[in-house]
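Troubleshooting entry. The earlier prediction with nicotinamide-adenine-dinucleotide gave an output that would not parse, so I re-checked the input for stray whitespace and re-submitted. Clean input:
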Amino acid sequence: MKIIIIGAGPGGYETALEAAKRGIEVVLVEKGNVGGTCLNEGCIPTKVMCRSAEVLEEMRSASDFGVIACSGTEEMSKIDFGKVRQRKSEVVEQLRSGVETLLDYKLITLLHGRAVIKDAHTVEVDGNEYVSDYIIVATGSSSASLNVQGGDLPGLLSSREMLDIDHVPSSLCVIGAGVIGLEFASVFSSFGSRVTVLEYCGQILPRFDSDLAKRLKQSLSKRGIEIVTSAAVQSVSVGDEAYGRGQSYRVEYEFKGKKEELVAERVLVAVGRRPVVDGLGLENAGVEYSPKGIAVDDNMQTTCTSIYAIGDVTGKMMLAHAAVYQGLRALNHICGQSDGIDLSIVPSAVFTMPEAASVGMTEEECKGKGIACKAVKSFFRANGKAVALGQTDGFVKIVVSDGDGTGYKDGQILGCHMFGPHAADLIAEMTVLICRKSTIEDLSSIIHAHPTLSEVFRV
Ligand code: NAD
């Protein structure tokens, strides 16, 4: 069997590796660097910056822990941004070469070029045609643009450009309080930028639990990040004021019926991402798609039975790990195998300080589906390890079914929404319990080591 995979991001390259392990011949086509957005200009480089911000914050609070790192506290709190950028490039390079080594496998042919689908089984790459039994499209997404006057001004930054910025701006306006906007707001606030976030919706992280969003907003505000929700950005223009390196932007927005404006040295546009569907030749094979993504069924199969689509390009969950498991599902379907992957239970994490994480349904979602539920909560301030770490800000909310007739066991864990120290790692336990259809009773019978952050789940 032979499969052509278009796009070598986490979805594409992991599917290629798994297919090759199963003895399937793979042609993997990539127009940029292997690793895709996640490795080259997304998850990984941002996490390098998050780590620098975390170290910096720890140094700033070192004296609270009885640690005198050096006599001049002024010196301690400085960031060498050139070194941060260098480390970011080194980490990305190290991981990318690791992926390249893995892909150097006898059954995988990696082609560098732009792929266009010619028909249900044929893909053209730079003038050469390749034929296969199946095609998997994993072309990802790109930053959405800001559809307001001045939204295309030169110098406005996307997340990719933000990662390449050569200095810490004195002030930063972030448009969009989604995952990307908040992660950069958190990092650059630590680095010393005066950060203002403008969010169109009434809460930050609109798709997250509203309680979590409210408390995380308070926590980020306490760190000095100004967050304005229900702010409808109306225009962006070049400002008269000279800020930082002599450049500024004026952002006009409507808030509570009044026109407001703010001036910042740089503006980050983080208003979502759009599936990359144009120029792929999907219409040549009768694949149904729209600007919102390629239509797929539960097996990631498109309207053309020999073509599958996985990851951001489907417009479903835009998360690297979702793409990987969607790829596995597509491959299993191609191989005629069933699997136990539940693609509806996908944990997600926001790498702000403190971190936020979520898995499963929110109370709002349960209500929308007519599922009776209740929430149990616990707080990091009552957790011994969190107190010792000096990181007590945060809470856990576990959503459980309430009574029979909900289609779930009474007390079955349906969702977990949390923020606090190491929330992104801690959410794994809740993911397991939800996948295993466990109840809150089951959770209370599981021993958690003391003193650990995981005891926060002893609700
Ligand atoms: P998003 O959809 O999460 O958030 C975009 C935000 O911008 C929303 O809150 C939206 O209401 C707001 N917005 C839209 N237009 C606006 C306007 N004109 N003015 C003000 N606000 C406006 O998108 P994102 O943060 O750009 O992230 C894109 C995708 O990438 C998401 O699906 C996200 O899950 C994924 N991602 C995940 C991670 C992670 O898992 N840690 C990190 C980065 C990105």
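This one parsed fine. The chain has a mean pLDDT of 96.
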